[in-house]
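Troubleshooting log. The previous structure file for this entry was overwritten by mistake, so regenerating from the original sequence record. Sequence copied from the archived sheet and checked twice against the printout by T.R.
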Amino acid sequence: MNYHFKKKKGFTLVELMLYVGIVGVVLLIVSILLMNLLTSRIKNETVSEVELQGTQVVQMITQNIRNAEEVSAPAKGESSSSLVIAKEGENITFGLDDGVIYIQEGSGSPVNLTNNRVSASGLLFENTGKDNAPDSIRAYFILSHVNYTERSEYSFVKSFIGSASLRR
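Regenerated output below.
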């Protein structure tokens, strides 16, 4: 008697468990990589938001100082939390209100220079001009990203410094 065993097509339980284990490990690695990519993207967007707004505010302040006719406040050798300059007969004021840096031209309404995604603090203007020289203003402030979720990738703080002198 010859017994011939027919090979059955299919998977054994051991093979099935091995395949499921391999697929599980691959899916775990892919999901970890995707989470890291997402976290990196969020962090990059957070940093970009703070740096973009900070750079724009510094440029706005320094450009207005260069084009101003005179500095009303702070006086030479002093510092202040607001800057008042005169340009074409109109006062322009830079200041900080409730975490927002603003500009106000004349008696008009203040215009926000930063939005609600960042919070400003420590705004300081220092007049470093000498007696017989044009006023020179150094502006300093800190911007931090508003973090509603308390997740670390949404946290970023940066200090900004800019300086400019009046043109004569």
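Residues 9 and 15 are 13 Å apart (CA to CA). Archived copy saved in two places this time.
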